[in-house]
């Protein structure tokens, strides 16, 4: 089966916030600050916006397609949000991969649902539950307990939120680089500063950590033996070395081995 480990990075939807809060006359940065302040007042401290108010800035994928592996991002600084989301779902339509995420069920996928609806995106294969393709009846992307979308954080916690672990810490403990260069709370500032490449590179290293944790998970449940696991890790190393991108070279240098 093809595998897509994926991750999204988001910023406040200032156009939506301006409309919902009646903030005509304020610039984008002021609207974003107003949205965050409103959220802090609602929660008593947290400014983490409700999911439908997150605008998707980038989607990155670590993909195993057939016998090939590559990491890539969808879109660039000038690509509209609707096009980014549509292209992601078009990839699912074409390759029908297993989706792998870390907290994708709690964040990434609901954001893509809401934002895809706002933009009129079409995602037939993703929403298939067996009416059109019977093979999806017992293994589809939407059911929490199916494997076609494997949320590693959820599965490893035994579907108990109090047992959740952070991606960065689990990756580091397993000998992978963990988060590199920046963190999620810096995405908005980098986007506003025009440094889209830094956000894309950060997202790509996150999906690499996720993919490597997925390989370790496959070893854990004996879907891979030690030789198969080592070969899969070597495939990632060779692919990243062939790309010869600074952020991927940095990732390779930080990888302690498996």
Mean pLDDT: 96
Strand segment tally:
5
CATH superfamily: Ribonuclease H-like superfamily/Ribonuclease H
Work out the count of structural domains.
1
Strand order of the biggest β-sheet: 3-2-1-4-5
Q: Architecture in CATH?
A: 2-Layer Sandwich
- CATH first level: which class? Alpha Beta
**Beta-strand percent range:** 5-15%
- Rg over alpha carbons: 19 Å
Question: Helix- and strand-based class?
Answer: alpha/beta
**Amino- and carboxy-terminal Cα gap:** 23 Å
Short description:
The protein is an alpha/beta fold and 258 residues long. It has helices spanning 14-21, 28-43, 81-95, 104-118, 152-156, 167-173, 187-192, 196-220, 226-243, 246-254, and strands at 3-12, 54-65, 68-74, 98-101, 149-151.
Kindly describe this structure.
With 258 residues, this protein is an alpha/beta fold. The protein has a single domain (3-254), classed as 2-Layer Sandwich (Nucleotidyltransferase, domain 5), CATH 3.30.420. Helices cover 48% and strands 14% of the residues. The protein has helices at residues 14-21, 28-43, 81-95, 104-118, 152-156, 167-173, 187-192, 196-220, 226-243, 246-254; strands at 3-12, 54-65, 68-74, 98-101, 149-151. A five-stranded mixed sheet has the order 3-2-1-4-5, with helices on both faces. Helix 1 (14-21) packs across helix 2 (28-43), helix 3 packs across helix 4 and helix 8 runs antiparallel to helix 9. The protein is globular, with a radius of gyration of 19 Å. The protein starts with a strand and ends with a helix.
